[in-house]
Design a protein that fits this description.
With 280 residues, the protein is an alpha/beta fold. 36% of the residues lie in helices and 18% in strands. The chain has helices at residues 47-54, 78-91, 104-115, 141-148, 157-162, 167-180, 195-207, 238-246, 262-265, 267-279; strands at 10-14, 17-25, 32-35, 58-63, 97-102, 120-126, 224-229, 250-255. It has an 8-stranded mixed β-sheet with strand order 1-2-4-3-5-6-7-8, with helices on both faces. α8 links the parallel β7 (224-229) and β8 (250-255). The longest helix is centred in the N-terminal third of the chain and has 14 residues, at 78-91.
Length: 280
């Protein structure tokens, strides 16, 4: 059985886009489809997480349109990103999935579930927030500072994005980076310079103030697990609470001393909690 490190990159055409994707794991039950964060590729997922899920279910990773090895242009709205994601899933011939969205991917996952409720059985939202969420009208000041810096080792950006400054959290971050680098062959190229501006434009549209911003959440009736760190400075933790309060069937887990990438700081707990939720 293939793993995160050995799964072949495959391609499929849909909606005029050649999507790059990887499928691996136990081919039983519903597959778990992953939606990636800001400027991320398939190789930004943590193998401690994906390989653990793959022991019990099939895992599907993909690059949405305009990302790394997928063709096309990055949309400037979350709604359009969701339409492309749905086209990719349809092209695979999947009638029902479980869906996990992280950060920007969590926005896309919400929109896709709202637009195509028959497609999603259960939803996992990690480090993300609702439309017009607190501090989501643009990148948070902390995020702007982190992404605006230059790093001698580029990957160490993620130590600030995903982990708190404490010694314990930073140690977990360094362990994550070792796992992050584990795939040596056929890694995705990093995204082009066109990706961040398009994704920021989409984030700003999603986060802009509007009347009754959380009303759409009432239409997402799938069982939902909301997960975050207790001190997320990228998409503020309060937004996870807002999601849980406004989704009709949601539960919330906050991990201690954790920032935006709490699932990477506590991969064993995260996999156990999500597996319990998916199997309930």
């Amino acid at each position: 059985m293939h793993t995160h490190q050995t799964a072949l990159t495959q391609f499929i055409k849909a909606a005029g886009v050649r999507f790059a994707y990887r499928r691996f794991g136990k081919n039983e039950g519903l597959p778990l489809v992953f939606m990636m964060h800001f400027t991320g590729t398939m190789d930004h997922w943590d193998p401690a997480m994906t390989d653990a899920f793959a022991r019990d279910r099939e895992v599907i990773l993909f690059n949405n349109t305009g990302i790394s090895t997928s063709s096309g242009e990055v949309p400037t709205s979350i709604e359009e990103m969701a339409r492309y994601a749905a086209a990719f899933i349809d092209a695979l011939g999947l009638a029902k999935i479980d869906l996990l969205g992280f950060s920007l991917g969590g926005l896309v996952a919400q929109q896709l579930t709202h637009d195509r409720p028959e497609l999603v059985r259960r939803l996992v939202l990690v480090g993300t927030g609702p439309r017009s969420g607190e501090g989501m009208a643009t990148l948070s000041p902390e995020a702007q500072a982190i992404f605006g810096k230059t790093y001698a080792v580029p990957e160490e950006l993620w130590l600030s994005v995903f982990f708190t400054p404490t010694e314990t959290s930073q140690a977990a971050g360094r362990a994550f980076l070792e796992r992050f680098r584990a795939r040596k062959e056929n890694r995705d190229p990093e995204v082009s310079e066109k990706v961040a501006p398009a994704q920021i434009a989409a984030l700003e549209k999603w986060g802009a103030a509007r009347k009754a911003p959380y009303a759409y959440l009432k239409n997402i009736k799938q069982p939902t697990l909301v997960v975050n760190g207790g001190n997320d400075v990228i998409i503020y933790t309060v937004n996870s609470f807002i999601l849980q309060q406004n989704l009709p069937n949601a539960q919330l887990i906050l991990y201690p001393d954790a920032n935006h990438g709490s699932q990477y700081q506590y991969p064993q707990f995260f996999v156990e909690h999500v597996t319990l939720f998916l199997n309930a």
